[in-house]
Design goal:
The structure is a single chain. The protein is α+β, with helices and mostly antiparallel strands. Strands 2-7-3-4-5-6 form a 6-stranded antiparallel β-sheet, with helices on both faces. Helix 1 crosses helix 2. The longest helix is centred in the middle third of the chain and has 50 residues, at 200-249. Helix content is 61%, strand content 14%. It folds into 2 domains: 15-147, Cysteine proteinases (Cathepsin B, Chain A); 153-301, ABC transporter type 1, transmembrane domain (ABC transporter transmembrane region fold, Up-down Bundle). It starts with 14 loop residues before the first helix and ends with a helix.
């Protein structure tokens, strides 16, 4: 399905422009949804067929609007993909992209993340379909171009400004891990050597050393948490402040054409992004450091045990990949229930 792209809607009324963006990407062009909203004159009620057609014309697509029935799918000269207008189970109007038909099943790209790209029986689709259809083909003046929103490059540049905090966080984590591994080794030697031989003087020295090491470890742990908290605060300031600053620069028409929830939920989305990025950065550097150190320790203790642990990794990966679709469905259902 990699040859059948899909663009998901950001807001409740973005399904029309998202469907148009999906077809544009199918033909090799990329447009931001905000740009297409302006072309289609999307408002709080969403995008209508006329708006999609006018936007498509400005993108140099040849369009044809028809009201069809099931015989449309028997036409040999039917050009895929095209946009179909449907009614959800709650009678809410919606736009989807029809990519392909095979064995009386349709490959649909639904801008709603709760459905996404999927196959559906044509009989079930016909119950939802209003018959309104927008056929699109690239016009003679159609030009491949990119007009998309900025990617993560600018964000990564900002992230590099906090590299000192990341470095210190990794360094403290390395020392904490080394102390943990060393203390385990010392306790093992204590149980095997000092206690059986009743070396009380040496045993006292060991406990004093371990006590100092654990105090130093706790000090480093507190410092590491403070550094990571400052790092998270900087991410919060960087993302939310830019968003608020951007909102103040927008024209009033931007707010007239959107539900209040479409704007306010961006703050919640920003918090999710900050949390995800913080976890990714921390996991990438800290966990990788722990894996390397613990891996070297295991090799020194028992190469067979190290191999056994490595062989278990594919099973963990398998179960993670197995549950990803389930979590995505849960998240998409929550997204659907989010009020405007």
């Amino acid at each position: 399905m990699k040859h059948f792209p899909i663009i998901y809607q950001n807001d409740a009324g973005d399904c029309g422009v998202a469907a148009l963006a999906t077809i544009a990407q199918y033909y090799g062009t990329t447009y931001s949804l905000n740009y297409l909203r302006e072309l289609a004159k999307t408002n709080q009620c969403g995008t209508n067929i006329l708006g999609i057609v006018e936007a498509a014309h400005q993108l140099n697509f040849d369009t044809l609007c028809i009201e069809a029935d099931k015989e449309l799918f028997n036409a040999h000269d039917l050009t895929y993909p095209f946009i179909a207008h449907i009614l959800r189970d709650d009678n809410m109007p919606h736009f989807v992209v029809i990519y392909h038909i095979k064995n009386n099943k349709l490959l649909i790209a639904d801008p709603d993340p709760a459905f996404g790209k999927h196959w559906i029986d044509i009989k079930l689709f016909l119950k939802q379909w209003t018959g309104n259809t927008i056929l699109l083909t690239p016009g003679t003046t159609f030009i491949d171009q990119k007009k998309s929103q900025s990617n993560l490059k600018s964000f990564l540049q900002e992230l590099l400004k906090s590299k000192s905090k990341i470095i210190f966080g990794v360094l403290f984590s390395m020392i904490i891990t080394i102390i943990n591994l060393s203390s385990s080794y010392v306790i093992q030697k204590t149980l095997d050597k000092y206690i059986p031989n009743s070396k009380v003087h040496d045993l006292s020295l060991v406990f004093i050393t371990l006590g100092i090491a654990y105090l130093f470890q706790q000090f480093l742990y507190v410092q590491k948490e403070l550094i990571l908290e400052k790092f998270s605060q900087k991410l919060t300031f960087m993302i939310l402040f830019k968003y608020i600053n951007h909102l103040f620069k927008l024209s009033m028409s931007f707010f007239y054409n959107r539900q209040a929830g479409d704007v306010l939920t961006r703050f919640t989305d920003a918090n999710h992004i900050i949390e995800a990025l913080s976890n990714i950065v921390i996991s990438l550097f800290l966990d990788l450091t722990m894996i390397i150190l613990i891996g070297l320790y295991l090799i020194g203790q028992s190469p067979h045990l190290f191999i056994f642990v490595c062989l278990s990794i594919p099973f963990y990966c398998f179960f993670i990949l197995l549950f990803i679709p389930l979590f995505e469905k849960k998240i998409n259902r929550l997204w659907q229930k989010t009020p405007n």
